[in-house]
What does this fold into?
Amino acid sequence: MKTLKINSEKDLYAAAFKLLNILGPVAGVSIIIGTVALDYVQTRPQDLPVTHILTHGDRTFKLEVASTPEQLEKGLKFRSSLNGDGVLPTAGDRGMLFNLGGEIYNVPFWMYKVNFPLDIFYLKDNVVTTAVYNAKPCYKNPCPIYKGKVANQVLELATGAANIKVGDRLNIQPLSVLPKNNIGLDSGNFLRNKNER
It folds into this structure.
């Protein structure tokens, strides 16, 4: 490594200027790349695993569960459908369950950057305390804020997918073990078609 000799204050300023000419563009490019990467991560939809099912009447819904503060905040933002990215659409059999971590009064939910309408159900011990039907997407602030009287969970389903009313007790159960042959409709067709070739 070459040692830089600085004989005068003028040489010191010249050396600092040369260093800034090198570091400035590197720092600028780093800031641009960092900003783009952060924006990508923040606007990327979350796909949580299906871990619970809801049975109501003759319908069964597969539920993703949001439990951490980050998962609760992101919810269904930026998603193209309730089915998640890369999942074939079905007859509205998917939903998201938000575990709030305790009983909360006047629970606020909004539809900011959610791309499709939803029915929102506020639950206390699996009983519906408040129902919001056909909550519309909102892309600019201020967005309407929907409040539930009291809840320890909130359920979001496609608009009109279930005939759920205030006072209904919902049967939400964890999926303990999936059957071994449950590999998904598209995976099964892909494997079958591939083997037939």
In short: Helices lie at 9-43, 69-74, 185-196. DSSP finds three helices and seven strands in the chain. The chain has a mean pLDDT of 80.
